[in-house]
Amino acid sequence: MAKEHYSEAVKCKLSDIITPDVFRTILYEQSKLPLGITEIPVEITLKKEAADKLSFPIPSDGIIYGVARLRDTVKERYGSENAKLFINDWEHKGLAVFELDNDMEKAFYVEISEVIELLENCLRVPEHRIKK
To answer: Could you tell me which residues come within 8 angstroms of residue 78 by beta carbon, excluding any fewer than 6 positions away?
Structure first.
């Protein structure tokens, strides 16, 4: 079912979607707080194999929360005022999905190595700066 659901997804570079200069990690508790006016929420889920490549520890469920200054980009590209970006470690590749406020989704296949690069080079909360 999921494979069919994202059959329209196209392969692209993660940097075409999100870059470290516009992304920062946050804690789960912070994900419930209001965002800045230019920010959208981001949720990254990594499997153990990918998580082990990070230089810092993440929760055992593999979920990393963050925000990205992408609201204007999303509005321009997809005509949506609000969105949430999910990046999932999915069958040996990454799947980045914008969940848009008009009940639409826009999905892209990305390389897991690019997700690791994003996380290693973005602004991180102190808990994500601790070396393993």
So the answer is: 98, 100, 104, 106
